[in-house]
Amino acid sequence: MIEINNVTKKFDDFTALENMSFRVENGSIYGLVGYNGAGKTTLLKTIADVYRATAGTITLDGKVIADNAEIKEKIFYVPDDIYFVANSTMDKMAKFYAGFYPKFNFETYDKLVKLFGLDPHKRLNGFSKGMQRQAEMVLAMSTRPEVLLLDESFDGLDPAKRALTRELIIEYANETGACVIISSHNLHELENMCDHVGLINGKKLVINTSVDDMSASVCKFRVIFNDKRDKEDFPNFDIKDFSRDGKIITMVIAGDYEEVEQKLADMAPLLLEKYPLTLEEIFLNEMEDKNYDITKIF
Amino acid sequence: MTLQKFSDKNFISMFKNKLKSAVPFPVIGLALMILFVVLIPFWEIIEINRGYGNFDLIQLENIKYILFGEITSIDYVFSDTAVFMYFTLVIASILCAIMVFRDLSNKKTANVYYSLGFSRNKLFASTYLSGAVCVLSMTIIPFVLNFIINAFVFGISKELFTAIIFSVSALCNVSLLAYTVAAIAMILSGMLVEGIFFSFLLNSVSAVFACATSMFSDGLLVGGGFIDADYYYYSTFGESFTSAFLGQTSFLNSLAHSAVEMGKYASCLYTSFGGLGGEYLTLDNWTTPNFIPILVWTVILAGLVFLAVYAFNRKKPENIGFFASNKNLYRIFFGTLVVVISAIGCEGGRSNNKGLVWLFILIGLAVAIIIVTILALIFSKLSRMKFRQEFKMCGVYSLVVIAFALVFSSGFFGYVNRIPEVNEVKSVSITQFTDDFSDSMELYIEDGNYDYTKPITMGHFCGEGNYRFFEKSEIAEIQSLHKDLIKADSAKISPDYKNTKVGSTMIIKYELANGKTLSRHYRRITPQIIEKYISCKGISHEIKTGMINSFADAVASATANITNPDNITGNYKFTTVFSRDLTRATNVDLTSVQLNSLLEAYEKDILKLPMRKILMPTSECLGVIAIRDDYNVVDGYDDVTETEIIKGVASELEYSSLYKNINGECDYITITEDMVNCVKWAKKADVYKYFAIDHKVGITTVDVAYNNSSLIKVSIASESSPNLVFSADSYRIGDSYEYNPYGDVVNSSSVPLAASHVAGNLTAEEIRYIREHSYAEYLTTQTGYFIEITTDEEKPLNATLFIPESKLTPELKVKFSLAEEINADKNIQEHTTYMDVAE
């Protein structure tokens, strides 16, 4: 289990992360979402001990990660900006990582190379961006880390390889009990893969919940009453979003969706429909900037 | 246990990985080091064994060992090869640090390296050690090979073993220090390009500050530096303040220290037999090298390694990819820049006027602050550097420069003017007036504009060539002179300062009873100081002895030609008598008896006359007797035998050739009325008549140049005589030279005297008067005119004379002044006039 306790990271006067706390259980896949520049990469680098937290601690199985060689050997960080040793091949990189990760498994490596259909003898600088991503993913999982940190690791992958990678990550977490923390802007992908998500906004972790709980906690309803009603007519609801088109009202309401549905039904609507929210909708609702006025830009 | 094993594996992996990335430069370095330490020194031995080379085997057998350098040019063991060796070692070490630490200055690679299973300490240790191993291999392997070859060729000896250990330890320190300093620079930098720049900058900071120290001492240090005629002393650099400073503080710079100390042990001979070795190390003067500075530097190295560890632990990878993420590095850079530019200002403005020097320092400082401000502005845009903060730092840099300059300006708060008590002094040395007074005294007139166009040298201060005194009375005399020098140096400069000063440098060196040396350099040498200097009992004796010995050598050489003509191999000594106006030269055949009696007379006169009367005579010159070489005699007259040449050909030589060959070696004595014995000899030898002016030799031009300098010297005539002190072409109105600090001529201009005449005719009587009242060769403190006269011969002769202003008739005074004014109007050259001669 990896645990982030009150972590703050400052760059001189600028605070990138503030008092952030969450934990990722073994075998769990944790999705990190947030705006560009919200601090996702900073958080991942801090967990990987590339950056040092200004305050707070990060522990793996109760042991502090910072400057702890023994623990760091169990963590693999796949950065957004991938690095390979100059003019190296996958095989060379495998040997490189094998030198630093004692659990590096060449059997796993060979299987993954075949699975992805990569040429392990070809120079990596001749690989496409997507292939380099695949190569890095192969190398990362071959090290058999207990914590896998993935920063925008799906970027540049074709749909087939995305699906394969996603399945591999789920399988890896399930089989090895590893913690996986993945940052991505592809919320649909995260939704299908992660069991937990964290939303970083304004330097803070504003949502930290399981995907199931998140889906259950917010729901979209479409209702029609025989008269015109405004938002004020629903005082007992935690309305996150409200829109009306004639008599048709669409609302995003937080809370237990069964309970909310019952309360709405009690108001005798002509029509009551319930729609589960996607992670993307939840993200946009939380970030409260879905109503861009782009009509005046051009 | 298992974890420990894994950690070790990690360490080794990183070590190997870094080793691979560092390899290219150490390999090149190693190849070059093998060239310098193995191939070059032993190439000659191979050549000799093959039957070539400049050394025979007997000489080779004198060699105990050779560490580095070329044996055929053993004189250069300490220069060329050694310099390249040090250069290679330092540069390769710096590049090695850049290669191994570069991954930690790159955003992309840092993500990987910092996230690997390493603690910071271990990451540093594996990285640092990989480079250190490369650097050490590059340093040690060549010497191991050298040791094997030395042992094979010359045999193992205690000396070889000690010298190898000493050299290897010293060089390991040098290379590791360069490597570690570069590593620190790389760790502190946020960008690779920045790291490369600071790797070299930090490694050169001590040398840069030494250079700045030299510049400040040149410009400001009374009693310690050089200003005027110092250019000549760069050849004797060992006597300058900077050299003394570096010598005293060489332990602060491991490279400087190693270069000096290792040079002594570069090779060793059994004896200096066979022309090899000479002053170099032989078994006779072998001493065990001093390892203490090396140990001190090893401790400093350890300190630097700890500093590197500290910096590495505190390094923020988030700053990678940003310029100027470390303000302190830039502050070192900016501070160095400010000090150096101010020092250049000091060097550029150096003059006898301290106010002017300070003005130039302040100008340099202002320029430096502007540059630093612009750089700070640029970097504050590129990084998180705060411009205001850095701008404020300019105040600190300025204070450092001003404090630095004040320390020099105050002569280390008066310390430089310390004169030790007589009882403290074991001996005192002082600048020699000239090493060969009779014919090679290099006196140049000072240019009044202080631009060093004509530096005057009092002579050479070359090692043991100075005057050295042990007697208490003689020491006291020098101390009195020392006091006058300090007074002159600190005196306020008057507007006519240029008229009261001889541009020269005087060095006084006390060897103290406690074994220390106190060396002081002075630059304001007034005529009064010159008079006092030559009047010192010890110095007077030394100068007179020098003059007599010099002429005695010439006489001995001429006598040898006469008594043993078969030994003449390429030149012949002629005795030539010059008329008092130098327009007539008569070659005379003297016997060895006559020459020796001339020497005797000269010796008597010189010993009898006070020094002041010899160097600054009050009576006019009667004529000049020169003993000179004529290289053309034998070469140019193949059809006559040597004996014939000696017996009579000299008198048959073309008249002009006599003058041409004055350019060669020439020893001469100037006869004045005070020299009664010489006058008596001249009359007896029947050469006195040749002193008379031959008015049949016509004069076509008379060029005059006003001189108000305090101390001048006029030379004897020649057609074109740059080797003699003054000709018409070489006093200040003629050629003008600008020297750089290394004594090279960087700019020269020439005013052709004889070609530029202005109006103002002279009558035949006036020309006669000038010829009769001009001095041929003197040192004088009188003001007057240089006269260059040109004869009307087929091959015209130029003679340079001097006529004191007091000797001029009112008419001549008017004409000379008029000519000077006309000339001044034409703005040809200040103080320069030309006059046509009436037909």
What does this structure look like?
The complex is a heterodimer of chains A (298) and B (839). With 298 residues, chain A is of the alpha/beta class. Chain A folds into two domains: 2-202, P-loop containing nucleotide triphosphate hydrolases (Rossmann fold, 3-Layer(aba) Sandwich); 214-287, Alpha-Beta Plaits (2-Layer Sandwich). Chain A has helices at residues 40-47, 69-72, 90-100, 106-116, 129-142, 159-176, 187-193, 211-217, 257-265, 279-287, and strands spanning 2-11, 14-24, 29-34, 55-60, 63-64, 75-78, 147-151, 179-183, 196-201, 204-210, 218-224, 238-245, 248-254, 271-276. In chain A, the strands form three sheets. Chain A has a six-stranded mixed β-sheet with strand order 6-7-8-3-9-10, sandwiched between helices. In chain A, strands 2-1-4-5 form a four-stranded antiparallel β-sheet, covered by helices on one side. In chain A, strands 12-13-11-14 form a four-stranded antiparallel β-sheet, with helices on both faces. Chain A starts with a strand and ends in an 11-residue tail after the last helix. The model of chain A has no long low-confidence stretch (mean pLDDT 88). By secondary structure, chain B is α+β, with helices and mostly antiparallel strands. Chain B folds into four domains: 2-209 and 250-318, no CATH class; 418-535, no CATH class; 545-692, no CATH class; 695-839, no CATH class. Chain B is built from 25 helices and 18 strands. In chain B, helix 1 crosses helix 4 (77-101). Chain B is elongated.
Q: How do the helices and strands follow one another from N- to C-terminus of chain A?
A: EEEHEEHEHHHEHEHEEHEEEHEH
In terms of quaternary structure, what is this? heterodimer
- Structure classification of chain B: alpha+beta
CATH architecture of the largest domain in chain A: 3-Layer(aba) Sandwich
Number of strands of chain B: 18
Report mean pLDDT of chain A, rounded to a whole number.
Answer: 88
Number of helices of chain A: 10
The biggest beta sheet of chain A is recorded as: 6 strands, mixed
Strand count, sense and barrel status of the largest sheet of chain B are: 4 strands, antiparallel
CATH class of the largest domain in chain A: Alpha Beta
